[in-house]
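Consider the following input, taken from an annotated entry for ABC transporter ATP-binding protein (Paraherbaspirillum soli).
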Amino acid sequence: MSIATPVIEIRKLWTQFGDSVIHRDLDLSIAAGEIVGLVGGSGSGKTTLVRQILGLNRPTRGQVLVFGTDISSANVDQMARLQNRWGMLFQQGALFSALTVLDNVALPMRELRALPRRLIRDAALLKLQMAGIGPEHALKMPSELSGGMIKRVALARALALEPELLFLDEPTAGLDPASSAAFVDLIRSLHRDLRLTVVMITHDLESLLALSTKIAVLADKHVLAYDTPQQVMKIKQPFIENFFLSAHHEQQVG
Ligand SMILES: Nc1ncnc2c1ncn2[C@@H]1O[C@H](COP(=O)(O)OP(=O)(O)OP(=O)(O)O)[C@@H](O)[C@H]1O
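Applying the prediction step yields:
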């Protein structure tokens, strides 16, 4: 893979469920190091698109390449290698309730069966530390944690295999403003330190503007705009104007 190869490249993608077309001729090319905010109305196909990038859903037509590998024709080995190169933070945190914090983070490493137990434990503690969770919480159960802490543990788990690509689904949903701001800071510093490429679905304007290097707007069944937040905010289109209304307002007021 050359330096110029996009981390994610989507070409002429179509998605159809029964008679309803969700994506039509959708193109998107994401370069290494970007933090891409994926926005669009409810039902515009953001989650479906991310699932297709992860190989969990198959598009009706078109191509999805991740690190230069075509997802739809990848064999089991290629898919396993790709899965080790990306991490996913699901909206609900999705921790295993019967496992401790430490075991939740250690699980992806144990599944690889390549590392000794002790090393896995130390590595999991390190990931937790990176996500702002001290060792005093390692043996707690998920039910003992606050919403913000669950997100951090889930993030530590997403980082367990040292991914180059991180997917975040509504990372700040359900967090109070202070926890949300702290989580945004955490993502920003991890992005800087680990040189991650990040794809984030979000409805939260504040974290979108604070984090995104590029915004991809999903509307009219395709990526209507893919540009810096400053450029996207200038576009005259009903969804975009409505979405950024409060940001424009704040700019005028402030
Ligand atoms: N497996 C499926 N079978 C049939 N329809 C589906 C399936 N998955 C998604 N859809 C439909 O496709 C459309 C896009 O759904 P998707 O969840 O990707 O949208 P979204 O942009 O993530 O929405 P939201 O912001 O509300 O989460 C919706 O109308 C949904 O009902």
